[in-house]
Structure formats: C-alpha cells, structure tokens
Amino acid sequence: MNLHLKKIIFYAAILLAGIFAPIAFPAYTFQFAVLWLMILFALTWDILGGQMGYNSLGNILFFGAGMYICTVVQIGMYYDVGEYTAHFGAVKIDFTPYQYFTGIAAGLVLAGIACLGLAVVFGWIVFGLRGPYFAIGTLGVAIAAGELVGAWDYVGAGGGISLPNYPGGPGDREMFFYILCFVSAVCTFIFLKWLYSTRFQLALNAIRDDEEKAEAMGIHTNRYKTIAWSFAAFFLGISGGIFGNMTGFIEPLEVAFPTVTFGIFMVLMVLLGGKGTLWGPVIGAIIFHVIKELTWTYLLGWQWVALGALIIINVVYFQQGIMGWAQEKWPELFGITVDEAVASAEENSTADKEAVI
Amino acid sequence: MFDNLSLLGLVPMLNLQLLLDGLLIGSVFALAAYGLALVWGVMNIKNLAQGDFVILGGYIAFTLSQPPINLHPILSIPIIFVLMFVFGWGLYHTIIKRVIERDLFTSLLATFGLAIVIQQLINLAYGPDVQTAEAGMEIREFFGGEITIADTKLVSFLLALVVALLITLFMKKSRMGRAIRATSQNARAARIMGVDTDRVYAFTFSLNAAICGVAGVLISIIWVIQPFFGITHSIRSFVIVTSAGFGNLIGVILSALGLGTVEQFSGFVFGAEFQQATVVGLLVLVLIIRQIMQSRQRQVVK
Amino acid sequence: MNKIIQVKDVNKSFGGVIANHNISMDVEESKITGLIGPNGSGKTTLFNSIVGYHPIDSGTIQFENREISQLKVQKIARLGILRTFQQTRIYSKMNCVKNMLISAAHHNTKWLDMFTEYPQEMTERAEHLLEFVGLYSKRFLISGDLSFGQQKLLEFAMALMNEPKVLLLDEPTAGINPTLINGLIDRLKRANQEFGITLFVIEHNMRVVMNLAESIYCLAHGEMLAHGTPEEIKQDQNVIDAYLGAH
User: Fold this and answer.
1) Distance from CA of residue B241 to its chain's centroid?
2) Which of A61, A183, B187, B281 is deepest in the core (most CB within 10 A)?
3) Which tens digits make up the pLDDT trace of C189-198?
4) Interface contact B299, partner C, CB < 8 A
5) pLDDT value at position B247?
6) CA dist., res. C100 & res. C91, Å (int)
7) CB of C87 within 8 A of CB of C153?
8) Which residues in chain C are closer than 8 Å to A218, comparing Cβ atoms?
9) What pLDDT, in 10s, does the model give residues A207-233?
10) Measured between CB atoms, which of A135, A140, A315 is closest to B284?
11) Which CATH superfamily does the domain covering C1-80+166-181+198-247 fall into?
C-alpha cells in the first residue's frame, strides 16, 4: 500500500510538473513542447528497437507522413489543396477558429490512422530483412519518402507548405501546442505501460531474443511485428501533425523527413536511457534534450560535431544506457532474480533431484 | 521527363554517351564498394562512414592541389593512400576495435556518428560549397562531337583498374592478404592457427580507408565533392554490396558499373536532382528483390 | 496403427550436395520413433523438411493425412508439430516462467488475446511443467544464465507447454552430463505416456535410442538404410557397416 501510494505521488508529481512547467517558465514553452515530442519519439522507437530488437533508422517516415497527411486534411477540408500550395505565399488565407480547430482535430486523427495503415504496407516490404539490412532498408525507405514528397507538386514539392495561422494570440498558440504535445506523450506512455503488461510484450521480447525459435514455436511473428510497428506509426503520425502546425511551415527534407536529426535522435535517446525499458526512453529523452539545447546554445557551429561524438561515445562506451546500467547494478529493484548460488550450482543440484524424482 | 525519354530514342548516340559515362564513373564506385565488402566480410562492420572517407580523401586532394602546394591531384594519390591508411589505423584503435565484437547495430550506429563528425568537420573547414580538384586535362570528341569523353574520366578508370588489380594481387600473394582471407572465413580458426586477428582487423580497416581515399581523389577529379555528399556514396556502396554479396570482386565491379549506368540514365531522364532518390530507390529495390529470392527458400535476408 | 507423419520419396539437395534422397518413412501416433545415422547423413535435413524450415525438391510429407510440405514453419507448428534445436534455443533474456508462458499454444488463441494478460492457470501450468523437468527452483532466473543442460530441459518444458501432437527432438542428450541422461530418458517416456505426445527423436547415443524408441530408422549418406525395432537394428549388417565406416 505504501508503495502504491508512493507511485501515485510520483506520477502526480510528474503530471503537475508537466502542467506547471510552461506556466512557471513561459519563455521555454516551445522547448518543453519539443521535449514531450522527444519523449514520444523515444518511446515509440523503443517498441521495435528495444522490445522487439528491430533497429529501425527510418521511423521518421511516419513522422513526416503524418505531418503531410495532417496538413493536407486541414487545408483540404475547406480549400483546394493544389491551389493552396500552388499559390504558395501569394494568397493569404485565414481560417476561422472553427475551421482551424476542426481541421486540426480531423487532421491529427487521420494522420494517426493513415500512418497505421502505412506501417502495415511498409512492414510488408521490410520485415523480411534482419539486423543491419533492416536498419539500412528502413533508412532507405525514409530517405526515399522525403525525396518523393519533394517531387510532388500537389503538396508543394521541395518548396513546402505554410500551415494555416493559429486564430489567437501568440501566447495562446504556444500553450495550445504545448498541451497537444504533453497530452500525446502522456497518452503514448500510458498506452505502452498497458501494452507492456499484456502478452504482447512477451511476444515482442521472444522475437528479440530468438525470432527463429519464436517461429518454430508457432508464434505469429509477422502479425506481432506489423502491429507493433503500426502502434509506433500511429503515435508518430500524430506527433508529426502536431509538430508541423507548431513550426507553421513544412518542407520535405529538413522538417518532415529529417533522417539525420530527429530520425537519429530517437535512436540515440533510447540508447542513452536504456533499451527495452519503459522509463529508459523517457529519461534518455530528457537528458538528451538538455544536452542538445546546451550544445546548440554554447557550441554553436560545433553542435553537430558534438552530436556525432555523443553518438560514438554513447554507442561504444555506454551502450546499456542508464536504465540498463541501473539494472546491472541493482537487479532486485527491477524484479530480476540473480541468485548466484542457485545459478552457479549447475547440474549437480539438478542431478541430486534426479534421484528424488 | 517524357521529352528526355523520347530524346533517348531519337538520338542513339546519347545512349552510348550515357552508358560510357556510367561505366567510367561506376568503376570509381566499385573501389569504395569493394572496401565496404572487405570490412563487412572480414570484420562484420557495416561502415556507414564509407562515403565520408571518400569525401575526406577528395578534400585532401583538393587541398593539396591548391596553393601553396599545387600538387597535381593524380600525383597526390600515393600520399592520400598513406594518409588515409594512417587515419583508418587511428580510427580502428580508438573506435572500431571496441564495436567489433558487439551486436550488428552497434557498428552501424557508431560509424554513423563517425560520419556525422567527419562531414561536419569538413563543413566547418571548407564550407558547404561544391568543389573540384582541377586536373587540367582535355576532353576528347568522337563521332564529330556527338560523344565526348573527358581524359580525366579515362585516367581515373585506368587508375581504378590498377588499384583493383594491386589489391587483388595483394590479397592473393601477400602474407597479410592470406591472413585477411583466412580471418574472413573463420576468425576463430584463424586465431587458433596463430593469426593475429587484431592486427588483421586493424590492417583491413586501414586498407579500406585508404581505398576510399583513392576513390575520393578520383571523384574529386572527375566529379564534385561536397561535405554532405558522403551519405549518398555510403548508400551507393551498400547498394552495390547488397546486390553483389561480399568477397566477390567481380560481382562488386559489375554491380558498380551497373549502378553508375543506371544513375546516368535516370539523371538524364528525371533530372539531376533525383540522383539521391535514384540511389535510394535502387537500394530499396535490391532489398525487396533479395527478400523475394530468399523467401522462396523460406529464408530471410540476414 | 495410425501413421501421424508420412514422408514419401522426399528429395532435398543443397547446391549439388544431395542431403536426402528418396526418403520414405512414417511416424506412428503416440509412439516413440528414433532416427539414427552417422554425422552428415541427413538427419537434421529431414527434420527441417518436416517442420517446413526449407522447401523440399520433390516428394510428399503428410501430417494427419494433410499435405504440409508447402506450409511455412509457423503454420506447421500451430498444426501441432514442434521441434527442439540441436543447439538449444531459448529466449535468453527472459526468465524461465516467461519463456514458458510465451510458449503456450498459439493455435487456439484469438486475435485480441494478445492484448490480455495470461490467466492464472497458465502460470500454474508453466510452473508445474518446470517442476516436471526439475527447474522449479530456478523459475525466476534469466534463462540465459542457466547451464547448457538446464537450458535443454527448459527447451523441452517449453515444447511441452505448447501441447504439440508430435515433438521432434534433435539430439536431446547431446552435451548433457551422463548422470542427467537417465532422468531425461525417463521424462521423455513420461511425456509420451502421460501427455500422449508422439516423439520423433534424432539421437547419437545408441544406448539412449535403443532404450527409448519402439521403432528406429537409420539414415546414411542421405538414404534410408534400415528400419526396424531396436533389436532388428542392432543386428542389421548395413547399420553396423555404416557406423564402422565400411561403406
């Protein structure tokens, strides 16, 4: 009961911190909003990368797809998309609050659902690949998607699209998007916390540990892989839609399909925090975001070099991540039994029991 | 796009021109791809910084060709071979050594980080402009100017050929070459038989960097270099190796020539801005084809 | 007697190497069938062909009178043919109970079951089976930390958890401490008698296979050399020659 109470206080504290952070530090509202998105990125990447052992470098695909789908829906509900993008910059269109909010709601929902479907299709393409081929294949798909969108005039091609203006003051705008980011990240966390309490997690872990064995035991491996990817895609799609509206302008290479920024950040945050745990990605995202903001501020010009170096150091020297390190150090806290006397007793003890049986 | 396609039908010489250009440039791609196949096959490292090694080699050649040194890029090849070899040696002992026995993703990600560091450092040093190392050679014309071939391309083709021959000879005849081949077949057995696999790995990785450096010089002569072009070169190498398999020099060369040709044609038909899209598209295509082939045997692409 | 697996004229070659040539054999329901043969005689290839690990070149493989040679591994496993691996394979980062739970049969679960927790009786069954193989006291250990022999027992228990109709065991006693072997034979027999699972066993240890199987097939150089009761096999001149290398 005591433990239960502690947990409730813990979660309540986090929620309160999340709610009051932008009120206490209004200048950093945008940064906080991005932080929640980062947490969402890390959590969704970990579904495949950590729990299932499929290291994707192309999850950003769903972020960008969601962004474009959301935008097209938002605009398309009230205007002709082709005309809107063709008159880029020339025709200024104001959306009424009703149009704006219904558009964004429908856009986000559809972005999530469409990305879910997209994941099923792309799963069919990439799930015959293992290990490095999967990583490179997904990277290829994501880059290709960016290039394709960049050539597609209907969605503004390489020139991008300006999103509808927020019908309200700048302070309201920031708060509105902060709340969207906050809610979507918390929803992702709660969803995954539930998902990892079901059989589904065991199946994902089985695929991670030995996929061939899982197949030989009759597990529907493809079904699990596709569903897992779809979940990740769903939340990423929504986050893409939010981010697009937050920045107000989207284009394919830097904003929608940034394989070398957000696409790699997701991986790095999870590795930093610890793969295959629920809290690892969250902790990793927070630390990474802070480091990133600091380097971007104080190492301007050298920030990318610092980032690359961070990747190398993290991967080479600290791959188990913070949670992995903590698990090694205090396994009993994580419910892992390492009874060395029992484990090292080898066959002798079993042999003793033979006689009894 | 369809205009260009019909132009190809109308002017048959154009096809020949594109084919020649593709083959000549493909021969340079083959070098970097062979290096990748080497490290992948011998030490199971998927080097995502492969293309950045190429670009780095190109920039060294560019620097040497500028005042105050004014060294002709072709003459700088031996220097760059040595420099890049040392560079590779240093990288092996600081980074690669520590990821070699780890899971597959580690090497991929570590080298990706390396790629970012290299491209950003080059960017800081030279800025994001496109550069070329001037070799000052003529352009030959055939069929009354319908076909043009730059001498630089011919020379680089020959040089690539020479390098490939030297590597093959080295692999076949030298003691280290034999040790490398033994390690790639079975590292444990090689270790038991007294091969110092750590040295073999270090040598292989350094050799790869050196080969990439040479490829970079040739690229800087016949084409352009830019700090962020590395990733495309890396993906090219992956396309070639995944379609040819490693440990198969002939396969690597044929795929590289094929890739060069396809790129030239698609660049002509769709426009130059689709270059990266073509390479990436080919990568996805090759992976899909390999999956279909493997699934016939109820296997997966590992 | 009912033939649960019928293999007819199966050919399988890798490149130019013929691994199985015109193999025909039957596994009888609720009995223990043995498969012996020198190294490289094609035993594991035959196993792999039955469980659908690779397509066969020609011939038919029937399970309960249904053709299965075109089916994929998972489908065949769900029909009720399960195999264990020569190099023991378990989910090495999960604890033993989780290894058992995820091995529970997948043929009678529905789509949405994957989003539910395991019912209590499933956990009890898992623990009961772990007790059956003598791993109860280690049930919460990470399975990768177990010794090789214990991992083999765990793999066997996982297979039982799946409630297969036929269990194909690839060298169950290889690499196991000799004192453990008798216990293992005993458990295999009990699995056969108490759970009614048909067993088909590749085994190198002659003493084990003679003790265990009621019907034995012998492969050599990819061809079926002999078939009979343990007594017949012991007397068979071809088998003796194959093992002594007189071929």
Assistant:
1) 10
2) A61
3) 999 998 889 9
4) yes
5) 66
6) 10
7) no
8) 74, 77-78, 82, 105-107, 162
9) 999 999 999 998 989 999 999 999 999
10) A140
11) P-loop containing nucleotide triphosphate hydrolases (3.40.50.300)
